[in-house]
Design brief:
alpha/beta; six-stranded parallel sheet; four-stranded antiparallel sheet
Length: about 625
């Protein structure tokens, strides 16, 4: 057994490393690594495949548990109609299309339905990877693709119930509905009870500051929910998913996920390696028609159906085509569903083999489709008029993001006849700029290639007005790497993004809400007759504090900056959102230093304060005093 474990880990490491070098998702490498140690291929092979099948089940449980944690139910309603309605519609159409297509090769109706269920889910992991590599996770087509993939993950719960109904020999809609109804009747009370007890339990364990206990409790919730679901005749994966949902709204969600992810990734790797050990290349060679039909359904069927549905929702061809290309694949959940179907006797071994191979190939094809789509649709936009030969033809300013802020900056530059180039991911914006003859580039400003095309190497100024803080950070860093002498002005979407953008190289960081408050403050105080010099001194101190440079507190300064250890009072074991410190005291938290030495500057609202943390508090002296008083109570 020890030899087998060493062999599996070696295969996972080798396959994952090769996938990384090839720019493919890691699970593709894990499956190929499993193929190398399979009993069906030459070379070293594991001896106890059944034992690793059990470990693989734990991988499925942890994957579904983490999906449940990451899925916030109230966020689902914000996905929009193309995801909420379009994703299930495309999945249903694809399942329906699989039946007549499978009949061409003699598949029974039940088998064809199972195949349709398995291939109907696109891989969120693959979509996210393809978009992240191009730095375009907030492009219009990216938002559609990610929202659709997330909705499909949620629909997996329904698909599991459908597979259970098929395993029972009844594929009628009534049987599927009864299966779903039974799952709701069993799991809904559990969800209500657990949602009240689990957060209390997690909070108590978290107070111990013992990471081992915290991890054990998180794993107990995942595996316990899965075991309970299995005990009442439901799916392990369904129970684990519900277990994740129980704590998805807890303030400790991120802590749970951080502890579980390394364990999940280990067991998920074992799952995908075990899938690879079951792959039989010799079977694939005897059924090329199955493989060809499956690829046609996954790539061609999904691409055509998705494109049509998105067009019906009014999306332009560019957005619809790019989103459809990213979703024309299947991935990790298809492997999970396929193995469930194989274990339930719903799929014959040869068709299962073809499904695994088609899923792997579809990922490679989708990556090529996305790349080709960008090459066709992302050509640089140049001004239609001939450019003069002198240096004035070069843009002096690069504007990254042409929304409300970027377009306002551009309007001022045009008023002063300053040449600029705009970079944006909205095709409609780029087309409108082209009509006006404005130099522009369609692409993501987080991409170095796009920045170079926009002329960042020769520009004097760059304005980064991107709504996504991570893309803004990458764009600032890329601009400074291309042109170290470039002055970069960046917009910080949130207060906590200011130090991040400054560290990335921004010359000045503007936070709109803070600037608006400063302007209102200046006009308001001067209207009330406060001397201009006192107003200016207060505002300068407030700006220094917000920038993370509070400096020493002098006698003439109005704001107090104090470091306060979190005590047993009102703030302990509560998030900043729950504590409402600003509303209750008037002071605000500038930074949190954890007991282990970590520092959170401009902490987000979901930051939980633990006893022993040190909190840097800013406010009027009496406000900071009130904060300390409540901290002690």
């Amino acid at each position: 057994m020890v030899r087998d474990i060493a062999l599996v880990l070696t295969a996972a490491l080798a396959g994952g490393g090769l996938a990384r070098l090839a720019g493919q998702p890691l699970f593709v490498g894990y499956v190929l690594g499993g193929l190398l140690i399979s009993p069906f291929t030459p070379g070293p092979a594991i001896r106890d495949v059944a034992a690793f099948a059990t470990l693989a089940e734990i991988g499925v449980v942890l994957v579904m548990f983490s999906v449940g944690i990451e899925l916030s139910l109230h966020e689902v309603t914000r996905l929009g109609r193309p995801a909420l309605l379009g994703a299930p519609a495309v999945m249903g159409l694809l399942i329906g299309a699989t039946v007549p297509a499978g009949a061409l090769l003699g598949w029974p109706v039940g088998q064809a339905l199972v195949v349709g269920v398995v291939i109907s889910v696109a891989s969120t992991m693959v979509v996210a990877k393809l978009l992240t590599e191009r730095g375009e996770t907030h492009a219009p087509h990216a938002r559609v693709a990610l929202a659709t993939a997330l909705m499909e993950d949620l629909v997996v719960v329904v698909l599991i119930a459908l597979l259970m109904a098929l395993a029972g020999g009844d594929a009628r809609p009534g049987a599927v509905a009864r299966g779903l109804g039974r799952a709701v009747l069993v799991l809904a009370p559990l969800l209500v009870l657990a949602s009240r007890a689990v957060p209390v339990l997690l909070a108590r364990v978290a107070r111990t500051r013992n990471t081992e206990l915290f991890l054990l409790v998180a794993l107990l919730i995942a595996i316990g929910a899965a075991a309970l679901a299995q005990a009442v005749g439901l799916s392990l994966a369904l129970g684990a998913f519900v277990g994740g949902l129980v704590i998805s709204e807890s303030p400790l969600t991120h802590d749970v996920l951080a502890r579980v992810l390394p364990v999940r990734d280990l067991f998920a790797a074992l799952f995908f390696v075990s899938v690879g050990t079951l792959l039989q290349p010799q079977v694939l060679a005897t059924r090329p028609a199955d493989l060809a039909l499956l690829l046609a359904l996954i790539v061609g069927g999904k691409l055509g159906l998705r494109l049509g549905v998105l067009r019906l929702f009014g999306y332009p061809w560019t957005t619809a085509a790019l989103a459809s290309a990213h979703l024309a694949q299947t991935g990790e959940f298809s492997f999970v569903l396929a193995q469930m179907a194989l274990g339930a006797g719903l799929l014959p071994e040869p068709l299962y083999q073809s499904l695994l191979a088609a899923s792997l190939l579809s990922i490679l094809v989708a990556a090529v489709l996305a790349q080709v789509g960008h090459r066709w649709l992302e050509e640089p936009a140049a001004p239609p008029r001939p450019a003069p030969a002198d240096d004035e033809s070069r843009p002096q300013v690069v504007i990254c993001g042409f929304g409300r802020v970027g377009s306002a900056v551009a309007e001022a530059l045009e008023a002063f006849r300053v040449p600029y180039t705009a970079v944006d991911l909205d095709r409609a914006v780029i087309d409108a700029l082209r009509e006006r003859g404005v130099p522009c580039v369609f692409g993501d400003a987080a991409s170095e290639t796009v920045l170079r095309r926009a002329g960042a190497a020769h520009a004097r100024l760059a304005v980064v007005a991107l709504p996504d803080p991570e893309r803004a950070r990458v764009a600032v860093r890329g601009l400074k790497e291309i042109n170290p002498s470039l002055t970069v002005l960046a917009r910080a979407p949130h207060p906590q993004d200011r130090p991040v953008l400054a560290a990335a190289g921004a010359s000045e960081v503007i936070q709109p809400e803070f600037e608006a408050a400063q302007t209102l403050l200046r006009h308001g105080l001067e209207t009330l007759g406060i001397p201009h010099e006192r107003v200016k001194a207060y505002m300068e101190q407030q700006r220094a504090v917000e920038s993370g440079r509070p400096g020493p507190v002098g006698a003439g300064q109005l704001l107090a900056v104090r470091v306060v250890p979190v005590g047993p009072g009102a703030w302990r074991d509560r998030s900043l959102r729950q504590s409402r410190i600003r509303e209750r005291t008037g002071a605000w938290v500038l930074a949190v230093r954890r007991r282990d030495g970590g520092v959170v500057v401009n902490p987000p609202p979901d930051t939980v304060l633990w006893e022993g943390d040190e909190v840097t508090v800013v406010g009027l002296p009496e406000q900071v005093d009130l904060f300390e008083e409540l901290n002690r109570q």
